[in-house]
Amino acid sequence: MDAKSCKTCGQKFEVRAVDREFLEKMQVPQPTLCPDCRAQRRLAFRNQRNLYHRKCDFTGENMISLYSPDKPYKVYKEEVWWSDQWDPMDYGRDFDFTRPFFEQFKELLLAVPRRGMHQDGTNENSKYISYGSSNKNCYLAFTCFYSEDTYYSTMVGFSKDCMDSYFCGESQLLYECVDTGKSYMSAYLTNCAECQNSYFLDDCRACKNCIGCKNLRNKEYHIFNKPVSPEEFETFKAEMLRGDLDAFKTEFDAWKLSQPFLYARIKNSENCTGDHIENAKDCHHSFELVLGAENCNYCQAAGWKGKDLFDCSRAGKESELLYEMHATVTSHRSAFGNFCGGVSDSYYIDSVDMLDHCFGAVGLRHKQYCILNKQYTKEEYEALLPKIIAHMKATGEWGEFLPPSMSPFAFNETLAAEYYPLSREEVLKRGWKWKELEAKGKVATTDSLSCATCTQPYKVVPQEAEFYKKMGLPTPKNCHECRHTRRMRSTNPYHLWTRNCAQCGVEFQSSYSPGRTEILYCEACYLKTVY
Question: pTM of the entire structure?
Answer without folding.
Answer: 0.94
